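[recover] target loaded
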């Protein structure tokens, strides 16, 4: 059985817009299996001025075309520098890297069909010009992954299930692979030959981070180790109101983003309130409870094991709350099972980019709602 070995780089910037995660990945493929190994991951910081411009774009909406055009090129430069930094730290010769897969920075995502010029469509926009990355590094770039799934009738998200199925299938347990980035998303990998399922569960760190930024007047961007939340208490009445958010009642397949749980949502939930430790603690409980709610309402059965990745896995309050809501389930950090919790999404896109180069399909229709499997991404040559 011949084994082909490839090296790919994945680049990912999440909804928190704090850094670009870059992962160098070795992928070994045979006729019957795919093995994925992280060589190294780095987080390349996004300067505050660029972060502020992106957040301004979020707030301005789709009318800010001038800023969008400039940011697309500027972020392309930044993503290219992240790839170069990774190449330098790994001492990888660019000639050995088959592809750089760049997810880009999502600036707008329309998951539910809306009428446009007489036809209902979905849409998703990621920026970070791939031509800049390709020209700077001399390596082919795959980008614009979500459009292919949307064209096949899907939501364009989540796209991580491909990697989740590679990593966690065949373990003899019903496993929920839960990522907690800005948004929470889960991949259900059942034992046996049952169908997988994946969808966005609701808020991840996004609401918490926005509250922390306002509470600390910009001095902090997240609740490190849940220290601020530890000082507060859960506001039960407020939590009950937040749990009435219509997204949480939607049946999968479904995806969400800043449009649902960003600054507009924050303004509506705060009203006249000022952020404080009580609100931050309540937001952390909101994340954990919405995940448990999604499992109990939309998974075929409760998982035997939950493996948590993303920034939320670093927050002990979220992890403790999730365990308390899923008493019969083993809740583990990805680090406990050998998965780097900070680079899983970048690894996922490295695999998706390699699959595009090889002409292999990358979406999981059970996750996105697509009508068929599709090869995802566009190739930009240097």
């Amino acid at each position: 059985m011949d084994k082909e070995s490839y090296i790919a780089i994945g680049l990912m910037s999440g909804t928190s817009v704090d850094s670009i995660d870059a992962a160098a990945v070795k992928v070994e493929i045979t006729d019957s299996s795919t093995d994925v190994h992280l060589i190294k991951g780095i987080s390349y910081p996004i300067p505050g001025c660029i972060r502020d411009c992106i957040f301004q774009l979020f707030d301005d909406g789709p009318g800010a075309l001038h800023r969008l055009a400039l940011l697309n090129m500027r972020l392309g430069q930044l993503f290219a520098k992240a790839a170069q930094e990774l190449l330098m730290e790994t001492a990888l010769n660019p000639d050995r890297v088959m592809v750089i897969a760049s997810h880009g920075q999502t600036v707008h995502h329309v998951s539910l069909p809306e009428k446009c010029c007489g036809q209902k469509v979905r849409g998703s926009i990621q920026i970070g010009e791939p031509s800049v990355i390709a020209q700077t590094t001399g390596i082919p770039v795959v980008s614009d992954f979500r459009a292919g799934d949307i064209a096949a009738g899907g939501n364009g998200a989540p796209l991580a299930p491909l990697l989740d199925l590679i990593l966690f299938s065949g373990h003899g347990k019903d496993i929920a692979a839960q990522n907690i980035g800005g948004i929470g998303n889960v991949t259900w990998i059942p034992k046996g030959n049952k169908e997988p399922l994946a969808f966005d569960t609701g808020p991840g760190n996004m609401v918490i981070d926005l509250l922390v930024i306002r509470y600390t007047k910009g001095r902090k961007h997240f609740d490190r180790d849940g220290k601020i939340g530890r000082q507060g208490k859960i506001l039960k009445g407020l939590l009950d109101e937040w749990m009435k958010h219509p997204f949480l009642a939607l049946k999968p397949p479904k995806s969400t983003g800043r449009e649902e749980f960003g600054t507009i949502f924050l303004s509506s939930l705060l009203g006249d309130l000022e952020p404080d430790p009580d609100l931050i603690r309540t937001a952390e409980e909101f994340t954990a409870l919405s995940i448990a709610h999604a499992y109990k309402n939309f998974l075929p059965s409760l998982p035997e094991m939950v493996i948590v990745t993303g920034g939320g896995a670093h927050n002990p309050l979220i992890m403790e709350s999730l365990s308390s809501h899923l008493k019969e389930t083993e809740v583990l950090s990805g680090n406990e099972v050998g998965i780097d919790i900070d680079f899983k999404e970048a690894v996922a896109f490295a695999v998706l980019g390699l699959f595009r180069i090889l002409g292999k399909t990358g979406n999981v229709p059970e996750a996105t709602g697509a009508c068929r499997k599709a090869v995802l991404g566009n190739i930009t040559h240097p």
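[recover] notes: The chain has two domains: 4-160+344-380, 162-337.
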